[in-house]
Structures are given as C-alpha cells and as structure tokens.
Amino acid sequence: MASSSPQQILQDVFGFNQFRHQQQAIVEHVIAGQDALVLMPTGGGKSLCYQVPALAREGLAIVVSPLIALMQNQVEALQQLGVHAAFLNSSLRAEDNARITREVMSGDIKLLYVAPERLMVGSFLSLLDEVQQHVGLALFAIDEAHCVSQWGHDFRPEYRQLTVLHHRFPDVPRIALTATADAPTRAEIISQLNLEHARQFVSSFDRPNIRYHVGIKNNARQQLHTFLEREHADDAGIIYCLSRKKVEETAAWLVEKGWSALPYHAGLPAQLREHHQRRFLREEGIIMVATIAFGMGIDKPNVRFVAHLDLPKSMEGYYQETGRAGRDGLQANAWMVYGMGDVVSMRQMLDSGEASEERKRLERLKLDALLGYCESTACRHQTILRYFGESHPGACEQCDNCLHPVETWQATQVAQMALSCVYRTGQRFGVGHLIDVLSGKLTPQVARFGHDKVSTFGIGKTLNLAQWSGVYRQLIAAGLLEADMAAYGGLKLTESARPVLKGAQEVWLRRDAEPEKRISKAERSARAKEAFAGANDDPLWQALKAKRLELAREQGVPPYLIFHDSTLLEIHNRKPHTLDEMGQISGIGQAKLQKYGDDFLQVLEEMD
C-alpha cells in the first residue's frame, strides 16, 4: 500500500473519487514528511488527512487520541475498510496488549491508536524506539489537539507532554488536528507542541448542512417534544442538559412519551454508560440525553439533531456539541432553548468554581459571547463564524433568524425603566423582585424593603411578566446589566448603562416569538420525506436499512460502519445493477465492495 498514490488509496480503500477542500494539499504535505496543523470542522474529513498519509508512507503511524470510545470507533471503521489498525488502552487484557505489541513489531499494523498517558510511559517510548529501528515510523497524528489548551473546554494536561515526540523523533512528521480552536487556542497548540514551523491548514468552520434554532424557554419539555415531532420522529439525536438530575428526569419523561431515550452522565456506573453508548452507536433512532460528559469521540455520522435544554458554557462548547449532528453532510438540526435562569445559574457555577480569577474572567467572556449569539438578530452561521475569526455573507437560509427574520422594537424607554429600577432598589435584587416593583405588586419582600415607595414602583404595568423577563435577559446580553454572584445573582448596572439612562443611546430589542404549535403526523411525514428525497416511505429504503442492520449485528458493529446514510441513499437513488456500478458510489471502497456488494445488489434485485 505504501507505494500507492494518495489518489489510489482514496479510491480503493475509502471509496471516494476525489479529495474535499484542503484534504489533498494536507495529505501531500504530510506524505512529503512535513509537519501540519489542521483546523477543520467536525464532519469535514479530518481523519483522512492522516489516514491516507499513514497508508502512503512506510512504517507505523501513531495516532494520539484522548478517549477509549474514539479509538475503538476509529479502529472498527478502518478494519471495515480492510486496513490493519489497532489500539492500545486500559480496556484491553494483558494478552491482547502483548499480541498487538508483537504485531506492531512485525509490521503487521499500519495505524496504532494510543492515549497520551500511554504514549508518555517510558516503556512505550522505548517500544517506539525499536519500531523506528526495525519497521519505521510513518507519522504522529495528534487528534483533538485543542486538549492541549489550559483555557479550553477539554483540557488534558498529558497533551502538553507530547512535545517529546518532536525532540525524540525529529524526522517523523507530526500532524495536529482539531475542529474547535479560536485564535488563542490555536496559538497555544502551536506553542505547546513545538509546531512553530508547521504549515497551518485552516478550513472554513461553517457547517452549512446544520440548521440552527435558538428559542426562549416556555415549557421547555413541551417545546422539545414539539420539535421532535415536527422534525425527528424516528431519528437519532443528542439532548444536552446541565445537571445529572435533569438528564435522568428528561430521559424518563421522553420514554413515557414513547421516545427511545437513554440517560448518560458521569455519575452513572461505567458499565451502564458503556451499554447506553453502545446502544446509541449500534441501534437506529436512539436519543441520548446527556451532560457534556458524552460526546467527544462519538463518530456516529447520522445524528440528525443536537438539542440543548440548557446553555452550554461557551461558543466553543456549543460549536463542538452541535457539530456532532450531520457528520454525513445531510440535513441536521441544532436546537436550543434557554432562559434568564440559565444565565444566572451558569454564571454562579463559573464564579463559585475553584479556577483562578484569570480563568473565571475568560470563562465569563466566553459565556457572554454565547449569550450574545443567542440574543442576536443576525444570521446564526455568520455569528458563529465571526467568533472563530471567519467571515460569512449571511442570509444562510439555514437558521431561525434567516428563515423567520426577528422582529425588533424600539425599547429605549422600557430599558431606562428597567435600569432605573435596578438602581433605585440598590443594585442587589434579582429579576423576579425587580419585575414585581415595576408591575406595582406589593409583595412581602417589596413591602419589607420599602420598594413600594421608590419612583419605579408600578411604572411598568404595560408589560407582562414574560415581556419584562425578556427585557432583562436582553439587557444582560447587551452588557448593560450584570449578575453579581456575591449577591446571589442580584443585578447591577455596568458602565454601558450610563448613556442609555442619560438618553444618549437608543436600545432596540428582539421581540420574542410565539411558542411553536404542534403539527400533524401528515406534516411530519412530509418533512421527513423531503429531507431524504422521498426515501423514508419507500420499501426499498427500508429494505436497504434492514440489510445494513442485519450485517452490522452479525459483526457486532454500528450500522453506519457498514455504509453511511449518504452512501445508502446513493444506492437507493442510483440502483446499481453490477458490482462495477456499485463501486462507483461514494463511500464504497474495494474492501466494502467485496464484503457487502452482493448482499445489497440482491436486495435491489428482490425489490425491483
């Protein structure tokens, strides 16, 4: 294989006719023995950027990967393609470790996946010295390279020790890859991994197949149920919640409603977590309800939606989590609802943590950026890309703001009322109390503090509770107010509020949309049919999926490792009659054609 051209490897092994975007330039650069830093969105084809060079160069390729699940998934996928790949980690028995080590030394394995902790063990580095002498080292691939950043959301201190590769094996090319890195994180990757001379390949962070929707919480469970009914009646997806308790309650509630939902969080027994993850990967239509403990390394390509019932911590976290949807390039949804309580809770979590003040300040800024995204009236794709230093023309037609432009209203006077109420009551009360004062409600707390005597008492009766909540939420997002965590989330004015109070600056706010209505089964069916070009209701499509599931169960692997939905859809639409015609379909390499070609041709023939 090492003598084959990258184009031939791409065609014969992976079943693709051509590289996408910058893949070819990256592959050729690494094959030539040069270092590279690759920033490419989830689903953009990062793995090919080191897998093709690994097969094209002589020797063993080492892939540094942070999670056992990620390693297992990648190795299973490569083995389906006929590639000799393996992993070494704590999940293996001693005899399996010994066998894989022998196969490595004999040159039988082309790609070996290891965790950074395993790599740094002295005995393993000595093993690599021997491999270098007898077999040769093709390259080092450092996946999920953002884990090196101490300011990032997935920091792994062991990643910082990987500079040993550069010093110990200076002639072996290194390729560091990530889908999530803003400018500071990128700089830290370069510094910590000694990649100052590496060529940087930065692809667009845009995921045009993902449709973004952000809404205000208004009976969040019912909103979620409506969203699932409207868009994803039989689809696999992930629902993120902030707390373990909420994960379990939401999963149980979904099951009661007839959905196939499983909980996943770090508090569950490891065996149960693994069982749930295996079911999610290997069965169709499973919904995983999880904390952020679930996700990294989940390479399931047909996740059709990612939903957030609570705010993530940052734009990076949100981007990475939503990026787990639609990895196959087909239509997917990123759906989120949030409320004022989310903002206060998240800021309390950040401020009560044990991190340094510098870290807390950075995390607050990241949360503010996410909140600004939520409240923005601009194109979602444009706002996300701007955060990562990339431009986008807007008008994506793939987000709520573009599909249903947000109505805004002149809110300067209302904003002045809200800000004045914060000031008049001493800048130490939460939203609920402030709204009571503005609405003229003489509650025990209002009476106790004498706030029925302040000038703002009762001046806001024209707005209801929901409207005032929206005003305060947006004023916080705009940076005119901030929650004082030392005062249990009480609001106080910022310097930015001064020109508004003086009448020197106008305030325009978005008008919150009405809650979505439930739709009929007929409309759900029509939407699903449109998404898969009429395939979902076609007996042939169901027969192809059934065959894929049968083959997957026989081998104990997820169905998508047989064929991705996009490949299966192409088989359905093109209806090949011969193995040669089947081999022209994207995603079917030589190994898969030999393994599965006849099985799927038989299905096509029987359904003809």
UniProtKB/TrEMBL annotation:
Q: What is the enzyme's class at the highest EC level?
A: isomerase
Q: Which residues form the Helicase C-terminal domain?
A: 220-371
One GO molecular function term of this record is: metal ion binding
GO annotation, biological process: DNA recombination; DNA repair; DNA replication; SOS response
Metal-binding keyword on record = yes
The HRDC domain is annotated at 534-608
Q: Name one GO cellular component term.
A: cytoplasm
Q: Where is the Helicase ATP-binding domain?
A: 27-199
- Note the superkingdom of the native organism: Bacteria
Q: Which cofactor does it need?
A: Zn(2+); Mg(2+)
**EC number in record:** 5.6.2.4
Catalytic activity annotation: Couples ATP hydrolysis with the unwinding of duplex DNA by translocating in the 3'-5' direction
SUPFAM superfamilies membership: HRDC-like, P-loop containing nucleoside triphosphate hydrolases
Give the matching InterPro entries: DEAD/DEAH_box_helicase_dom, DNA_helicase_ATP-dep_RecQ, DNA_helicase_ATP-dep_RecQ_bac, Helicase_ATP-bd, Helicase_C-like, HRDC-like_sf, HRDC_dom, HRDC_dom_sf
The record ties this protein, via Pfam families, to: DEAD (PF00270), Helicase_C (PF00271), HRDC (PF00570), RecQ_Zn_bind (PF16124), RQC (PF09382)
Q: Which UniProt keywords apply?
A: ATP-binding, DNA damage, DNA recombination, DNA repair, DNA-binding, Helicase, Hydrolase, Isomerase, Metal-binding, Nucleotide-binding, Zinc
- PROSITE patterns xref list: HELICASE_ATP_BIND_1, HELICASE_CTER, HRDC
State the NCBIfam families in the record: recQ, recQ_fam
UniProt-listed PANTHER family: ATP-DEPENDENT DNA HELICASE Q1, DNA HELICASE RECQ FAMILY MEMBER
- What does the sequence similarity comment in the record state about its family? Belongs to the helicase family. RecQ subfamily.
Q: What is this protein called?
A: DNA helicase RecQ
The record lists the organism as Methylophilus medardicus
